[in-house]
Amino acid sequence: MELNYSLNTASSSAVDECAPARERRSANRQVSVMLTAKLETSGRQQPCRILNISSKGANIESLISLKVGQPIEIEFRSNLKSKGTIRWIRDAQAGVEFNEAIDLNEIWKRSEVSIKRIKPRPPRYCCFAPAMVEHGEKRLQCQIIDISASGMRVVDVKNMVLGATVMIEPSGLPRHRAKVVWCNKESAGLKLVNPFKYHELEMWLLQQESSHFRDGTC
Q1: pLDDT reading at 26 higher than 50
Q2: Which residues form a coiled coil (predicted)?
Q3: Final residue of a domain: which of 57, 75, 108?
């Protein structure tokens, strides 16, 4: 498989030639997956799909135009990130070599609450987009300042009730039912009952980025 060859070639120099053969095979072993993550590079942030991964690198798919040699960072969740370099590009896919080997077991295991009672979250994306919140007969204008596939943080909204179920309609996205998981005087955290679809959020974030560049807010 050509993908494996590309990634292994990029990472082979990082593997100690004196290491046991079993360790070298483990370091370069590819695992076909279909994970979603956050890709950050050159001040941009977009979702990406991870199609294939090893401890040394990954094959990703993203709408961001990338270049060979470009530094990137992949965020799997809030407590798990990895920096790397683009080694090859083919259409919307790219091969990434990680700067440091990662532990694949950390990728597979479920997110658990830490000793500090903080549960790792899915990647969040900074934005500034108008939305409408419906709670009973009330319709409130607000702004979304960060968003993920499973929730968002809204500001400029008052009198939200902790634990309440609301309808949230971001401009450009379908209405979703959500629960208020935290709130204060003028902001709230909403968790979606059903998460956004991958392509739905991907295209929306791209449109948000384009509009910010056009109006000079980014």
Answers
A1: no
A2: none
A3: 108
